[in-house]
Amino acid sequence: IVLGIIGLGGYVRLNKAGLSIVKWDLLRVHVPRSDEEWEREFEEYKKHPQYKNDFTDMSLDEFKFIYKLEKWHRQLGKGLGVVFIIPFVIFAKKRFIQRTLILSSLGIFSLGGLQALIGLWMIKSGLKENLGENYEKRDVKVSPYRLALHFSFGLLIFYFLFRMGLFLVTKPQILKSSILFAPSANN
């Protein structure tokens, strides 16, 4: 799944979709539901220099495509956080995972949160409000340094998850306290 979000992020980048959502909303899950909502989002995007410089002939359907790409990238990141934290809290509370594993998992979860903040910081570099009408015509994009940091953190998170997975597979005794090996209530 983590490699999927990294791959989707690369596809988003290649399609210049990352700047299509000009408002950052952590809690909004759905894409626009009505034609009016789509038109409103498209009008916001039309104010952005990327539209003015690169996509002045873009149709609403083309905008929907890049918008949905970016939305899915962001939603997958949010979803990974939820899918990670809910079972983690339950397992930690029931003491199904050892302290060392709890600390490692919290570290990886923290990297995921930092990754989200880096993504926000990266996008903001391409959504500068002060570019105005006199903006010099050129390819509008996010800071390549911030993009590289965002990508690197994605790879770092994958590395730590892969390493933890290998550790747990090679050390089955660690899993003995997990739910898979916990004695049933009937014994």
Concise structural overview:
This protein is mainly alpha-helical. The protein is 66% helix and 0% strand.
Structure description:
It is a single chain. With 187 residues, the chain is mainly alpha-helical. The chain is 66% helix and 0% strand. It is built from seven helices and no strands. It has helices at 2-14, 35-46, 49-54, 60-93, 99-126, 144-170, 172-175. Helix 1 (2-14) packs antiparallel against helix 4 and helix 4 runs antiparallel to helix 5. The two termini are 36 Å apart.
User: How large is the share of residues in beta strands?
Assistant: under 5%
The helix/strand order is: HHHHHHH
| CA radius of gyration | 21 Å
Total number of strands: 0
Quote the average pLDDT: 84
Largest sheet at a glance?
A: none
Query: Which structural class matches the secondary elements?
Result: mainly alpha
Total helical elements: 7
Helix fraction bin: 55-70%
How would the blueprint of this fold be written?
Elements: H1 2-14, H2 35-46, H3 49-54, H4 60-93, H5 99-126, H6 144-170, H7 172-175
Helix pairs in contact: 1-4, 1-6, 4-5, 5-6
